[in-house]
């Protein structure tokens, strides 16, 4: 029975990751850094004319299919539905708590709503839009990406009715996983689970804060009022997460079989990093440097980027501040930012196949491969980070990075990312 539950959990995690990370992969050929403008750093680096601007049709097609998958997963009363075989579902979700939790997205082939991976999905989708939204727009997919993001953040807003209360799950996973049916036809009870000051959940609250902070940047110019609502929720949730430190799988043991967390330090840094980008409040930068870097940053170590471990993504996202600068950063904060960048380069050097420090955790054809279950999640996640980091290098006119004395250029990072995309496409065809 435990093996069956684990298998279903891992299938769910795999599908979330294929959806989230494909957004990053399919724009690997774009190479235009929209985030520089969106985050409004005080420095104004110029995008190099050598950056590729062509649209590669196979990536554009993959992007379109990925965004259709988001539409397939939507719960609630559908709007502008472009999936003919999907209809309204779960319209009464949250009713027992006096809330409207009808929106959001189902977990893979299940009818569960797990707040932890759903919030992470929103964070990664936001980052992808901020980085490459102009390329999505070029292939007429940006509106779909924004709509799917808002479908999740609408749900997250409703799931946070009070400053120290967050609803993190809808549905009974044991019942749901033993009953395969269309969401339009489900009649099972849909219980809800919350974290609060008595039963806290630091990682899920912090991840939700990261989702709302990053999404507030996406909607800052599109819908300023909505952006402000998201940011207010993000700040409240971060305070909640940081004040009541306890893993949600400890507070609520029944959630352990599904998306069990290995720790919450990375989520706190992740949330504070996005809040710094969204607000420019120096207290958030201080939080990820002087206050908590030693405890949570994992300096000097490689880590496998996933829905459970965001260290590598934090290191890449904070390295952009070191690349491009910002006002009023102290010397000590800058030293910690340099450490984040150095650790990001350790991550990149571990990924590059002919690097002296390259990981051996890959197939004979070069696909990053850590474990049989969720086997593609790390490959596609690192493909995204490699493209982003290569764009930081290009835009800042950083010619190369060094891996134990060997020199690599931004194009080498891009080649690695393309190899992971290609291997994933081949894997999908085989399986």
Chart the SSEs and their pairings.
Elements: H1 2-25, H2 35-39, H3 57-73, E1 113-114, H4 115-138, H5 142-158, E2 165-170, H6 173-177, E3 192-196, H7 202-218, H8 224-243, H9 248-251, H10 265-279, H11 282-291, H12 293-296, H13 311-324, H14 331-351, H15 377-395, E4 401-403, E5 406-408, H16 410-430
Antiparallel strand pairs: 1-2, 2-3, 4-5
Please tell me about this protein's structure.
The strands form two sheets. This protein has a three-stranded antiparallel sheet. Strands 4-5 form a two-stranded antiparallel ribbon. It is built from 16 helices and five strands. Strand 4 and strand 5 form a beta hairpin. It is globular. The protein has helices at 2-25, 35-39, 57-73, 115-138, 142-158, 173-177, 202-218, 224-243, 248-251, 265-279, 282-291, 293-296, 311-324, 331-351, 377-395, 410-430; strands spanning 113-114, 165-170, 192-196, 401-403, 406-408. It has a single domain, classed as Glycosyltransferase, CATH 1.50.10. The chain has 431 residues and is mostly helical.
